[in-house]
Sequence to fold (294 residues):
Amino acid sequence: MEQQFLMLKEQTAHGNAMFPLTVYDMISDASLPERIHCHWHEEIEILAVTGGSAVLHLSNESCPITKGNILFIPSNQLHLVTCPVGEPFSFFALVFHPNLLAGPIHDAIQQQYILPVLEQDTVFPALTDTDRGWQAQARLLLDEIHSLFLRKDFGYELLIKARLLELWHLYSTHAQKREKAVKAHSDYRIDLIKKIIEHIREHYDGSISLRDLAAQFHMSEGHLCRFFKSMTRMSPVEYINFYRVSMSMELLRQTDLEISDIAMRTGFNNISYYNRLFRRYMHMTPTQYRELDG
Fold:
């Protein structure tokens, strides 16, 4: 459940410095409309849908996804997945740092095939359907990486890296060059939403009004709300409240502070309002959550 609340730059370690890669399986919580909440990370993520249907929101674009699809999520790109409440959605994800592919020497592989993707001058297909040609081959490679990671037989790291390079070759063969004007506009929007989110992160425990937030980023309140929701699928107020609840969960787990103190420390001036929001997002009270964690 904790993973569902990584709403900013994700801090979870994916593998380690010696082998920065992990694979995880996920059956999402059907009681929540956001199955993967808005976040980004330095790692590249390749996600294989294993059940159900949902909508991927990647930067400022959205597309429906369903069982059999593979999603390529570039480094540092905002992404989230939404799904109607009650509908099942499951997947497994391969998450790896680009350093795994790029060696210590700036060679032809880095220059021609790695850096253009990291710098977003070359764009890999965000969504593929494994019923078709090369995509089916990509799914076989992804399934093999998944299996190798779970078994961890001798030399599995070698085999995973070999399969990952094969997978990168397939994507490179079907990549597109990005127009500089489109890239600049998209980068501006992404940079702006990240700055707004970071501002919320730094000031969540104090007073954050919509008016002050809009003034901070030289926008009208209406423009801020429309822009923020277009990028995160949440209003600024919803995002602030959800992030505050997620921060209160840390204090509930790690401290013996009174719940009223935790509410105050995470920006809630009203304990009743905090309890109501916590129950809405977690489907239990703060006290029940603390007892469950203990």
Remarks:
- The first helix runs from residue 108 to 118.
- The CA atoms of residues 35 and 270 lie 28 Å apart.
- The mean pLDDT is 85.
